[in-house]
Amino acid sequence: QVQLVESGGGLVQPGGSLRLSCAASGSIFSINAMGWYRQAPGKQRELVATISSGGTTNAADSVKGRFTISRDTAKNMVYLQMNNLKPEDTAVYYCNSVVKTTRWTAGTLYWGQGTQVTVSS
Fold this sequence. Notes:
Elements: E1 2-7, E2 10-12, E3 18-26, E4 30-39, E5 46-51, E6 57-59, E7 67-72, E8 77-82, E9 91-100, E10 108-111, E11 115-119
Parallel strand pairs: 2-11
Antiparallel strand pairs: 1-3, 3-8, 4-5, 4-9, 5-6, 7-8, 9-10, 9-11
């Protein structure tokens, strides 16, 4: 019913920048919180940043000052601007969204399929 598709990943040198995008589509009445998570090889998935429907943001300490989350509510999009990337930022990045498909249903958490970000010289 709802699909999330990430884009914008790739290979970048340390100190470089990337901008990830995530598009939500399908049976969407409204979207509450949206977020980005990442999972490095051999590690658990971890929070990167979230943004509420009102625009309040939260970010992991490891990315504060370097990554910025934003959203375009009209387009059902969420973005992650990543600057000053480090090798330890290498991971698969996933977006998620809490989506209401009708006015009367509770929000459901959906995940994208992930996009690879590799930071290496």
